[in-house]
Amino acid sequence: MSTAILLLLVHCAGIPAVLGQGQDLTRQPEAAGTNVVLASIGLIGQTGVFPGDNLFLRRLAYAETRDGVDITTYREGYDGGIWQVDESIFDQTQDTTTHPELASLYTQINSTLGIYWPSSTWVDLRSPLYSALAARLFFATVGEDIPMSGDLQGQAEYWKTHFNTDPGDTVQDFLDSVNELESLECPVRGLDLVFVLDSSGSVGSSDFALVRDFVADVADTFEIGPTETQIGAITFSGIARTIFELNTHSTASALQQAIQDIPFMDDPGPSTNIADALSVLGADAYTSESGARDPALAIPRVAIVVTDGRSNINSSQTIPNAQAVHAAGVVVFAIGVGGSVDLGELNGIASDLALVSLLSEFDTQELLGLQRLLSFEACLVPAQVDIEQTITDILDGGEVSFFEYLLPVQGMTISLEVEEGGSAALYASSQLMNPSAAFYDYMLQTDSSAQVYVDPGVLGDSGIVKRETTALYVSIEGLEESNSFSLETAVGDTTFSCGCGITVNKKFLFIALLLVSVVWFL
Questions:
Q1: Which of 119, 142, 144, 409 pairs with 382 at a CA distance of 20 to 30 A?
Q2: In the predicted model, is pLDDT for residue 172 greater than 50?
């Protein structure tokens, strides 16, 4: 009676087995789909080997093969994979005689991804990560920069001139594909997004009008509302001013009007007080009074700072104030315009070097390109969450929430509970900022509750060289029409494995054992 009843009681307690540990479809031949493409691009991007590609690699996958789901992607006799890298193009990625600059890239790729490129073959490109790498290596040999993300015509012509050799494919085909791709909705639940805008005299009223249009374009890419994305605005010159808060405008139309009404306020004297703007951002922008959502919802908090200069008021406090904002869990993008910006200061303002952008001037085309890039990147920002902080939310089918934890040396236990009628999948990784079904270290899928212990000692065993990081990234995707969930975490291993594929919380095991005892004596 003992084992059978115990397993039955544990199952009835609603604690199903852990469903998966470790998957990397980016290295699996003939894998396809949006998650596979995003994982491949994410893994390459996080190596830091290549400069930003202005969304070109993402667009290329969709234009060439609809992310690999086109039935001709893996046709017989052609091994170019999702990115359709012709054999002649692949050969160019291994030609260090003509392109000696490739040698240093090989070394970096090997040290970060564990791939020694000179040993690869064209057939390897049937695996998505190899196809993406081949395309990226090829563009490093072209000798012409990839056009800005806002210059769609330029990217289409770059594609046709340097990459696509099919006479039946046209520049217009690329444009149509990109427009179709970028009409798809951002799958993230929402953001609390604040713009911090330079309103000093060096910007000028005419260029500030372009900045307002840029903010409006970014805002237009999100669903606006109290349960979706909320947007606030701060301007700074001699002092910083809150123009409107996150909860001031709850509809897209009201927000768009408010953005166009943001005043240009140039204060007399030295007037680039970035330190004060960051102080206001950290102290006031993300309070409950200003409309920031409850931490239990784990809505990502994002700020976009735009300036054309360097701090000239209380400048010694600029970086400390930025660090305080980062410590509060706000992800900061920094945009510098023109030749007067201090790159070191921008690097300190941004949460990560990859979140720094430089523009030569306030130009409509450059701002449009940046808008597209920021909208894409902001869509994938994880919310920074403390261990033992309970998160509760409701996801629609296909919606995703991203979280980032600091992984303790003892590891951590993740517990996911989904209310009746819903179902959710959870993916966790230390390697990829946005884990999914295509790439994860741990996975749970449940319509009730499930747990997993994340052991730092075994993370990164997917073939990718471990990153020097203490971060654990978690994604939760809603699988039914409506999915109400609760996510809890704890330091260390609070689960128990019975050795039969079922992992349970120790308190539930204790209850189950008590029930077994009662049944036994009955």
A1: 409
A2: yes
DSSP 417: E
Strands 192-198 and 230-236: parallel
Q: How far apart are CA 4 and CA 215, in angstroms?
A: 61
What length does the chain have?
A: 522
Any idea what the Cα angle at residue 380 is, between residues 374 and 383, rounded to 5°? 115
Strands (E), 350-491: 356-359, 383-384, 391-396, 400-406, 412-418, 424-429, 439-440, 442-446, 449-454, 471-478, 482-491
- Its pTM stands at 0.78
Q: What tokens were used for 47?
A: 């190596």
Residue whose structure tokens are 């994938």: 380
Q: How far apart are CA 244 and CA 297, in angstroms?
A: 22
Structure tokens at 175: 């444009």
Q: What is the pLDDT of residues 423-435, one digit of tens each?
A: 999 999 998 989 9
User: Please, which residues bridge with residue 131 across strands?
Assistant: none
Helix (H, G, I), strand (E, B) or coil at 291: coil
- Whether the pLDDT of residue 1 is over 50: the answer is no
Q: What is the CB neighbour count within 10 angstroms for residue 141?
A: 16
Task: Name the pLDDT band for 2 (thresholds 50, 70, 90).
Answer: very low
pLDDT in tens, 342-355: 888 998 999 877 78
Indicate whether 6 pLDDT > 50.
no
Other beta carbons within 10 angstroms of residue 219's beta carbon come to 22
Tokens of 370: 């940046």
How far apart CA 330 and CA 284 sit, in angstroms, is 13
DSSP state of 226: T
3-state DSSP helix/strand/coil % of the chain, to nearest 5: 35, 20, 40
- CA dist 458 and 434 (Å) reads 19
Coil/strand/helix, residue 424: strand
- Name residues whose C-beta falls within 8 Å of residue 313's C-beta, 6 or more positions apart in sequence: 238, 270, 271, 272, 273, 275, 276
pLDDT, position 462: 46
Residue 64 Cα distances to 68, 134, 175, 376, angstroms? 8, 14, 12, 20
Rounded to a whole number of angstroms, the distance between the first and last alpha carbons of the chain is 12
Work out the angle between the directed axes of helices 318-327 and 274-284 (0-180°, nearest 10). 20
Cα–Cα distance, 250 to 450 (Å, whole number): 36
> 466 pLDDT exceeds 50?
no
CA distance 321 to 276: 8
The Cα-based distances of 82 to 3, 152, 406 in angstroms read 49, 21, 34
pLDDT tops 60 at residue 478: yes
